[in-house]
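Support reply, case 0932

Customer input (verbatim):
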Amino acid sequence: MELRNYLDEHGAKYQWLSHPTAITSQELAQVEHTSGHNVAKPVVVKADDRFIMCVLPASRRVDLDQLRKELRAQQVALASEMQLHDVCEGCELGAEPPIGELFGLPTLIEQSLTADKEVLFQAGTHQEAVRMSFDEYRKLVGGSVAKFARPA
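Our regenerated output:
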């Protein structure tokens, strides 16, 4: 499903933004003049035999050991580019929206992201983004909250 349709069908309140090309989440923060703490960065991992979308601030990195413990998994690894392409079909690589349900994945939100009043994230391309309140985002994605990141 296309992101804008998904947001509209769920009655989400959001702002759709167009911007110069921003490949990384930190570049998105820069072109949109916001802190990397407010940019929701999705990281898809494979935990044992299932994929999970982990969402964290752009200013942080996934701690795979901590994540493995949180998920009670034997093995946790970042999804390869090929796996990411297959799982997040229809998105530019690295511009996936942090909404696991769009791709049939559970969403796990990093605890530090919950302190933000609003979030900004890529909308499937490196030239479009969405801004919404964190409360709206949390209502939209549901998902569990856990501590699995460390400063970048």
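We compared this against your earlier run and they match. Two observations from our side: Residues 3-146 form a domain with the YbaK protein fold (CATH 3.90.960.10). The chain has five helices and ten strands. Please reopen the case if you see a mismatch on your end.
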